[in-house]
Amino acid sequence: MLQTSRHVRGIALALFSVCLMADAARADTLRIASTTSLDNSGLLAAILPVFTKQSGIKVHVIAVGTGQAIRLGRNGDVDMVLVHHRPAEDRFVKGGHGIGRTEIMYNDFVLIGPSGDPAGIKGRLITPALRRLAARKALFLSRGDRSGTHGREVSLWQRAGLTPWKIKSSWYRKAGAGMGRTLNMAAELRAHTLTDRGTWLSFRNRRSLAILVAGDPALNNIYAAIVVNPKRHPHIRVTKARALIAWLLSSDGRRRIAAYKVNGELLFKPIKR
Amino acid sequence: MSSTDSGFGAALSLLFSFDPQLWRIVLLSLQVSLIALAIACLMGLPAGAALAIGRFPGRRILIVLVNTMMGLPPVVVGLVVYLALSRAGPLGDLELLFTPTAMVIAQTILIFPIVTALTRQIIESAWTDTGEQLRALGAGRRQAMGTLLWETRGALATAAAAGFGRAIAEVGAVIIVGGNIAEHTRVMTTTIALETSKGNLALAIGLGIVLLLIALVLNGAIYSVREFGRDRQQIRLI
Q1: Which pLDDT value is given to residue B85?
Q2: What is the CATH classification number for the domain harbouring A232?
Q3: What is the CA radius of gyration of chain A?
Q4: What is the ipTM of this complex?
Q5: A256, A205: one domain
Q6: Which B residues 46-65 touch A at CB under 8 Å?
């Protein structure tokens, strides 16, 4: 009997400690949903501790695709989203789910593929490059996960007058995966895919993949912060979210974003004001 | 293959670097999965015993149901728990989403059927073997349950080990309800998924090896406790 009660006490203690961990985290924590590209690049892990030190506000980052990030925001499960798909962002704000969309920083998308460039698209603009991929039936991997990158890819194809996802084909394939996993698949299949530059630069399993198309203004990639509307979810920590946005826009925040490097290369540029 | 080779290297250097961040991840993995296991056992052992020798309507249907639930896809469990704990869900006010507690809940749901189903099977065969004896000694069904649970503790430990294995190896549920937040809800499996997506395959495999080593140590401990118990029993018989 004594033994059992000791066991029960042990279990209760362990349970309690986990709950404590959760509670301690909630009190002064800001919760943001960001795109995987921002998280995987290591930028947030590099600069957010500075913000925490200055403001005393801890930041929990949940890294998901833009579509899912916005869903988390709509459900009130995060205080702020940091995403990169304008049409989805506008819908989110128009629907009354988010307030104060603020552009924070940008980089660009790049089209990558086998470094030997079998389709002959290197150095072209994105529209002729995509048309050529389609004409040659060169293997292309789409994210296919309703992420910001997927949304951009779809609109780039449409600009080129193509909708390869509508026809059954062997060269256009949907990965249904995040950016990193799609890049792993592209490396394995020697396929082409669209990726943000941040994820590409910090990706370690490139094998024969290389950047084939970059620098086209149509490939710009803007990250914006949107606070979840407290009118829909009164528990949203609006003040803390605004404090983070203000810091990201401050000269200190902008300097740190601009200085962040992976493998010697700069990843993001703060929005010009 | 080179990834596997460097994976071993990565595992070794991980283990011997004593990187505090890594140990925090390992510790949280153990904490979450062991608590889930404890809760699943507290409920699953009696439930399994009741299913084995209890007499109540719907028992057969429950047995089939529990057996089916052993195959619950972790992602589905994760989604259901997410929908329940989300602010937009019925339990949103508890503020449990994206906490270790949410991960414990998801893993408990995942392994409760395993512990229950295996317990039922173990107790049922013990009941077939010794039921008559127990009844001759005047034991009621309730008493018999307690006795059988105690007598089959070695086999039940294996059932618990199966449940624990499922919990600690699972990624689909905890990544949804935990959110893989650094230093808060990041466990070994979600770290492996993250490093894979970054293309750090060697590090991912290294972490996988660390995970296996931990499971090895735990299962070794369970096995030796069991053997030790058996030795003692034999001594008593002599």
Answers
A1: 96
A2: 3.40.190.10
A3: 21
A4: 0.84
A5: no
A6: none
Quote the CA–CA distance of A229 and B185 in Å, as a whole number: 26
- Would you say B155 and B59 are in contact if contact means Cβ atoms under 8 Å apart? no
Structure tokens at A142: 């789409």
Nearest to A18 among B31, B89, B97 (CB): B31
| Superfamily (CATH) of domain B2-237 | MetI-like (1.10.3720.10)
Distance from CA of A161 to the nearest CA of B (A): 32
In this predicted model, what pLDDT tens digit does every residue of B152-209 receive, in sequence order? 998 999 999 999 999 999 999 999 999 999 999 999 999 999 999 989 888 889 889 9
Judge whether A11 lies within some domain: no
Q: A183 and chain B: CB distance < 8 Å anywhere?
A: yes
Calpha distance A82→A94 (Å, rounded): 17
Instruction: Count the alpha carbons within 13 Å of B20 in the hemisphere toward its beta carbon.
Output: 1
Classify strands A192-196 and A140-142 as parallel, antiparallel or unpaired.
Answer: parallel
Check residue B9 and give its pLDDT.
Answer: 78
Asked if A62 has any chain B CB less than 8 Å from its own CB, the reply is yes
Which residues of chain A carry a pLDDT beneath 50? 1-3, 23
Total domains in the fold of chain A:
2
Average pLDDT of the segment spanning B81-89: 96
- Token pair 């919760």 is found at A31
Does position B225 have pLDDT exceeding 90, yes or no?
no
**Chains A and B: how many Cβ contacts under 8 Å?**
88
Residue A248 included in any domain: yes
Query: Measured between CA atoms, how close is A33 to chain B, in angstroms?
Result: 9
Residue A261 is assigned to a structural domain of this protein: yes
* Region class of B128: left (phi > 0), else alpha (psi between -120 and 50), else beta: alpha
- Give A75-143 as a DSSP string: TTSSSEEEE--HHHHHHHHHTTSEEEEEEEEEEEEEEEEETT-TT--TT--HHHHHHHHHHHT--EEE-
CA A149, CA B13: separation in Å to the nearest integer?
35
Q: Cβ of A76 and B86 within 8 Å? A: yes
Same domain membership, residue A74 and residue A176? no
Asked whether residue A17 is domain-assigned, the answer is no
- Helices B2-17/B201-237 angle, 10° precision: 70
pLDDT recorded at residue B141: 86
Its domain, for residue A236, covers: 29-106+222-270
In this prediction, residue B10 carries a pLDDT of 76
A195 lies in the same domain as A113: yes
Contact yes or no for B79/B172 (Cβ under 8 A):
no
Provide mean pLDDT across the span B79-98: 95
Do A132 and A211 share a domain, yes or no?
A: yes
Q: What is the mean pLDDT of residues B89-97?
A: 93
Tokens of B218: 């735990």
Residue B3 pLDDT level (bands cut at 50, 70, 90): low
Domain boundaries along the sequence of chain B: 2-237
H-only helix segments in chain B: 2-17, 20-53, 59-69, 74-85, 100-136, 141-151, 153-169, 172-178, 188-197, 201-237
